[in-house]
Amino acid sequence: MNHIERDVVVIGAGAAGLTAATRLKAAGRSVVVLEARDRIGGRLWTDHIEGQLFEIGGQWVSPDQTALIQTLDELGLETYSRFREGESVYIGTDGEAKRFTGDIFPASPETEAEIERLIAVLDELVEQTDPAAPWEHPRATEFDHVSFRAWLEQQSDDTEAVDNIALFIADAMITKPAHSFSLLQALLMAASAGSFSHLVDADFILDKRVVGGLQQVPLRLAEGLGDDVILSHPVTSLAWGADGVTAVAGDVSVSARHAVVAVPPNLYNRIDYVPALPRLRQQMAQHQSLGLVIKVHATYETPFWRAAGLSGTAFSPYQIVHEAYDNSNHGETRGTLVGFVSDEKADALFRLTADERKARILESLAAYYGPEALNPSVYYESDWAAEEWTQGAYAASFDLGGLTRYGALQLEPVGPVRFGTSDLAAEGYQHVDGAIRVGWRLADEILEEAGVNQTATTATATTEGDAA
Fold it and tell me: Would you list which residues are annotated within the binding site for substrate?
């Protein structure tokens, strides 16, 4: 057994864990990062499939993601704008592909007006919602006890308007059916992006990409940590108490004053905590789960849709692929489309064979872009639910009532152990920007605790231990 002693052990080499480790090291603390996978990056993964570069995981940068933008600047990474010139495509209940420009899809005047009204109502509620503490909203309990779908249906009897408003939160972001999470969870999602209008505006939320791929952020952070990042070492046990922590990962054990568990909440229980986590923490983890989405990559010898005057942006709550975009890489002559299939539609596709699933997905792309979409040169499906150390996408969210019941608790340390990933972010929730912000916060909390009161952890450990 190789024994290591550090000030802080970080579990997870994603953006949050590596950001925390980098900040701690810069402040003079010794750190080590233990990662279960054989690669750096967590839910960020840029890879070559059949010679074609694809962003298997997260990829976009929006103007409000200032923590990510700052980090890109510090790391010397360049960005480029997503192609968006031309008309978008919407498919309604009649199955007909309609071309349009602007944010509101072509529908009846009544439906267009209803969508604009619902957006205004949601923007007003979002403005009242603190993304760092949505459970403090004056109507938090009420909003957390009604599903997003049920609330929308209370607001409007225009089914097409309801279906499309639900799409922007349920299918496109939380990747769960709109009946399975609360209005408050939806408000948090929108508040974390600044407004619901931002989620509707693809030109805002999907603004830029990183030249060479977004995984370069964690890769470059890891370079700065050198040999203090250890791959292929899943942590199996974490003993914690007044004197600090001991993490065991295969043939490595680490003793440290503090631990940062930087993995999604659904993976907390892959670690054996000694003593066990307090009862409410164990309960909390059972009320958080990741969504389900298939990210589809289809590369063609040319971006044929551009010649047809299309931007590549397409969406429909009635199609298997609920949204798709031009995802061509910087400097390439080939064209790439990226599409998404989420929640119950993904359930249905995963019951098919791989060939049947591919055929159904390409047929859906062809409904937007025409028959040329049926024959990509390279095709790949990102299936994060099959990843042992992720098991879903994009991020964790609570079930009905869970956010008010456990939301504040998820941010509290358990003795010398702190938990944090993009799943627990306020601004930038479920995005790389949020992961970076959480990494900064966790590092600052440890530094403040170490500098102000070295015995604070002992008192917290005793209190939480007694609570269990």
Answer: 340
275 upstream amide cis, omega within 30 of 0: yes
The pTM (predicted TM-score) of the whole model is 0.94
Q: For 168-216, how does the pLDDT look when each residue is reduced to its tens digit (9 = 90+)?
A: 999 999 999 999 999 999 999 999 999 999 999 988 999 999 999 999 9
| Sequence ranges of the binding site for FAD | 35-36, 235
Residues annotated within a binding site: 35-36, 235, 340
Q: Is 259 in contact with 11 (CB distance < 8 Å)?
A: yes
Of 17, 78, 9, the closest CA to residue 43 belongs to 17
CATH topology of domain 2-42+215-277+414-467: FAD/NAD(P)-binding domain (3.50.50)
Give the class (CATH, top level) of 109-196.
Answer: mainly alpha
The dotted CATH code for 46-84+205-211+292-386 is 3.90.660.10
What residues have CB less than 8 Å from 432, skipping those under 6 apart? 15, 44, 58, 65, 68, 214, 217, 422
Residue closest to 56 by CA, chosen among 175, 224, 203, 214? 214
Q: Tell how strand 244-249 and strand 252-261 pair up.
A: antiparallel
